Amino acid sequence: MFNILLPYDEADKGPCCRENRIKRDFWTGGKVAHTAAALWKTATASTHFAKTDKMIGERGASMSTKDQKPGEWTQRRIQSIEVGFQVIRAMEAANGPLPLRDIAAAAGMPPSKAHLYLVSFIKEGIAFQDPVTGHYGFGRFAVQLGLSAIRQLDVVAFAREELSALQQATGFATYLSLWGDRGPGIVSKVDGERQGSLAVRLGYVLPLLTSATGQVFLTYLDEAETAAVRQDEMAAARREAPDDAQSLAPRVTTARDIQKIVETVRRQGYSMTINSINSSFAAIAAPVFDYSGAIVAAMTVLGSDKQIAGPRMTSTTEALIAAAGRLSERLGAGTRAAEAQVAMTSKTRRPAEK
Predict the structure, then answer these.
(1) Given a cut of 90, is residue 340 above it in pLDDT?
(2) Predicted TM-score of the model (pTM)
(3) pLDDT: is 207 or 28 the higher one?
(4) DSSP string of 41-88?
(5) pLDDT at 341
(6) Residue 272 — φ and ψ, nearest 5°?
(7) 228 or 335: whose pLDDT is higher?
């Protein structure tokens, strides 16, 4: 039985009217039955959403500190959206459109479930289905979303957090450099506890061929972009007599010298110079890439040569490469690019340290 409370109607007769309500059987016909069915459906739906909302809220609020990971999001959230992003991430990791079974396998769900999400994504323009192969890829709105995210990227703003964390982890001065017409210029810095009397100046343009920062740009930038600076520095090095050179670093005067630098940096994933620009100082630099895989900046650690090139070399280099990898990922380089960058740390250990 289902009781319905209806407004008082003078046309109705009987004891129910005197109580200002009418009790009808749920299974009887007429308007009351339809009203009861509608109310029952609404009540059921409200109860369902209330329970779901409560479950989501409790899941976020009741996470124990034992299971919670550092920095994990614990506020209330919509679980279905998180599940849907498993499908999106599976598509993002692919090099092109995928069949349904591959997307479902990568997302860790049955194909029937993945298909429901894909249908919704197609409707909203996030995904599309190839009419010939039936494979699924990203749609027009996904492209617009990506371009909008790219327009909002600010490498200098993003780098501040990583530079500070890197300085705290190593104790050395850290700075970010961008490429300019005259070479790499320092645009952001965090002074270190172990940098001694050397001051890092914002706006300072570093040499291309003999600084760790410059050698990173030399390696990863297109040759046409570095050609003018490269030729000027090589010509200046040729005019300089070997005995007059203040630097202990090798003089770069030939194309073969440049090739050796590029091969070394690509093999290691970073560049290191000792006593190159300033006596008793060493620097290690790593590249920062954007969504297209192009270098957009270089992160550098600067400090005493006895410490950076000594027992702290391995830990400092690993921390630098990891920081550059995280920054690259924030700029859209992707998890795979960041992982590849971090993987370079396995090559940073000297033979005696392995």
Answers:
(1) no
(2) 0.58
(3) 207
(4) HHHHHHHHHHHHHHHHHHHHHS--TTTPPTT---S---HHHHHHHHHH
(5) 52
(6) -135, 135
(7) 228
Alpha-carbon distance 179 to 217, whole Å?
8
Residue 304 CB neighbour total at 10 angstroms: 18
Mean pLDDT of the chain: 76
Determine the Cα–Cα distance for residues 216 and 295; give it in Å rounded to an integer.
9
| Alpha helices per DSSP H over the chain | 15-18, 31-61, 79-92, 100-107, 111-124, 140-151, 155-170, 212-220, 223-239, 255-268, 305-308, 313-330, 335-343
Mean pLDDT of 136-152: 82
Determine contact, residues 338/329, Cβ cutoff 8 Å.
Answer: yes
Domains and CATH numbers, the chain: 1-44 (no CATH), 79-150 (1.10.10.10), 154-353 (3.30.450.40)
Question: What does the pLDDT read at residue 353?
Answer: 36
Q: 196 burial class (0-12, 13-18, 19+ CB within 10 angstroms)? A: middle
* Per-residue DSSP letter, 244: G
Give whole-number Cα distances, 251 to 235, 246, 255, in Å. Answer: 11, 11, 12
